[in-house]
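Incident log, structure service

09:12 report received: a user says their structure output differs between two submissions of the same chain.
09:20 pulled the input from the user's history:
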Amino acid sequence: MDLLTQGLLGTAMAQSSAHRDEVRLAAGIGFIAGIAADADILIQSENDPLLNIEFHRHFTHSLFFIPLGALVVALVLWPFLRKRLPFARLYLFAFLGYCLSGVLDAFTSYGTHLLWPVSDARIALNIISVLDPAFTLILLIAAVVAFKKYNHAMARIGLMLAAAYLSFGWAQMHRAETVAQTLIAERGHQAEQLLVKPTLANLVLWRSVYEFEGRFYVDAIRVGLFSEPRIYPGESVEKFVLERDLLGLPASSVLAQDIARFSHFSSGFLAIRPQQPGVLVDVRYSNLPTTTAPLWGIEINPEQPQQHAKYTLYRDSSKVTRDKFITLLLGEHLLD
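09:34 re-ran on a clean worker, output below:
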């Protein structure tokens, strides 16, 4: 999730266990602890463009790192708060603020190393978007009211409402998944893998991506609260196969290793679009849920196998794209 939401979740968690005279201090400690795990965004290398995406949401987001992460936050804040709080209380608030950072990120579709070092799997439950204003607003109101009233009760209520919202996201995901499975059956396909994820900032419009006979099929599925689900058929693209698409690339080369790293990051949803033959894209993400146009990808040059692949973003915030997205979100007829 975004930093503000992470911080607000940490705030509410810390406030929920604070005494009346500690609520405001707990709010600040919890907010700092809530965003501390995302300090891994600072792990970067000019020589290795994939290092950042490889380590973002990595060990600092692991469940096993929580006690240490909270301790680091507590030690950093101790010189400033030692006259106002016992260290045990400071650590408690830091622990509560930090403990759900990785868990919240795992609810999104980006992927989080939640069980590292026991498992290197990127866990992505696809229940909520990486940015969801409704979820953020719930936590914001709860934290602000608790701060103003010196009362942890509102923080606890906010946490329960946030949990209810995530439960709603889980229900919406299963609705969209059911629609996707029906669509796959109607096409006479058998999905080898299926991914259904929410689009940006809502739980109504979902992106469906499935693999069948070496191709990825992308569709948009709208599951409104008071209307029948609606399907917007999308594009398809051939799945990337290293041995076929880059025949002769040495397995030990820097480029081959970068492709393997990017494949792990993308859960294997890789393709080369005919429109971008030099770019390996992550099919899970696009600016529109019906297209295979990438949100990000890596530029590959087989003629320079010992050079690192370049990681590139392809965000499209044009009015045309925004209007199409809103049309899909509102369930209106999409004009070509």
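09:41 both user submissions now match this output. Likely a transient worker issue. Closing.
09:42 reviewer note: DSSP finds eleven helices and eight strands in the chain. The beta strands are 193-198, 205-212, 215-222, 230-238, 270-272, 279-282, 296-299, 310-313.
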